[in-house]
Amino acid sequence: MIELIAQVIIGVGLAFDLFGCIGLVRLPDVYNRVQAATKCVTLGTCMILVGTFLHAVGVGDGAMGSKALLCALFVLLTSPVAAHAIARGAYRSGVRLWEGSVVDRYGEALGAIHPKGERAEPAESPRPVAASEEPKP
Amino acid sequence: MSLFLAIVAAGLVLGSFLCLYRIGRGPTAPDRTVAIDILGTLVVGFCCLLALWTGQDFYMNIAIAWALLSFIGTIALAKYLEGRYYDD
Q1: What backbone torsions phi and psi does residue A113 show, to the nearest 5 degrees?
Q2: CA gap A67, A74 in Å, rounded
Q3: Is B62 helix (H, G, I), strand (E, B) or coil?
Q4: Which of A122, B40, B67, B74 is the least buried, fewest Cβ under 10 Å from its Cβ?
Q5: Is A14 in contact with A44 (CB distance < 8 Å)?
Q6: Are B83 and A135 in contact, with CB atoms under 8 Å apart?
Q7: How far is A71 from A52, CA to CA, in rounded Å?
Q8: Angstrom distance (rounded) from CA A86 to CA A79
Q9: What was the pLDDT predicted at A124?
Q10: Structural domains of chain B, count
Q11: For residue A56, what is the nearest residue in chain B, using CA coordinates?
Q12: How many CA atoms lie less than 13 Å away from A35 in the CB half-sphere?
């Protein structure tokens, strides 16, 4: 019985992984790809790990089950942080939003974009970083 | 159980090839970074499948180490994209 539950959970996790990878290929923008791929793949991999834990409980392998739970905790902690860092780095390196995007709160907060939606000076400063934050030589 | 594991492995291989398509095609460097991060998370799933297939638990050690090292590599790449140095 617990084997069947583990297989169902692993199958659903595989489906989430595939949906995340399809979103990584199909979506038009770096930021859309980040938010689709990271959430789906994090949940899918955590479900595969929980399924491994249930299978190990069914078999009676305590070492594999505890390591699977620990690995699920690590994936759940590190993957959103990494995605946040990538999105922030992409915005600060000057990657533009998709032209169908309707709002850019981060740009408004940085002061690089007026609330109407047009950029302040797109030609002079392609990256919205203040002059004091330029890289040290 | 073995047929089921083969199906799951085939699905993960398909997802990995989608990630490789984005790594090769991606128009900007952050696209490639996202795809590398997702590929690292899929490898953790592969390690789980190997542990289930062989019934040996040391593959889960590889999964834990891979998750942590992939996180460190992704943070380093994101810092590089941002154009800053590692001490601020």
Answers
A1: -135, 135
A2: 10
A3: helix
A4: A122
A5: yes
A6: yes
A7: 11
A8: 11
A9: 45
A10: 1
A11: B52
A12: 6
Work out how many domains chain A is built from and give that number. Answer: 1
Q: Find the DSSP H helices in chain A.
A: 2-26, 30-59, 62-92, 105-110
Residue type, A98: W
Assigned domain for B11 exists: yes
The answer to the question of residue A132 being in a domain is no
Q: Is the pLDDT of residue B85 over 70?
A: no
Tell whether A126 is covered by a domain.
no
Per residue in A100-109, pLDDT tens?
888 888 878 8
Could you tell me which residues come within 8 angstroms of residue B46 by beta carbon, excluding any fewer than 6 positions away?
A: B9, B12
B42–A45 C-beta distance less than 8 A: yes
**pTM assigned to the model:** 0.82
Q: Token pair for residue B10?
A: 């085939």
**Chain A interface includes B62 (CB < 8 A):** no
The label of the residue with tokens 């922030």 reads: A88
* Chain A residues with beta carbon closer than 8 angstroms to that of B44: 45, 49, 71, 75
- B65 domain-assigned: yes
Structural domain boundaries enclosing B7: 2-82
In chain B, what residues touch A89 (CB-CB under 8 Å)?
A: 30, 33, 77-82
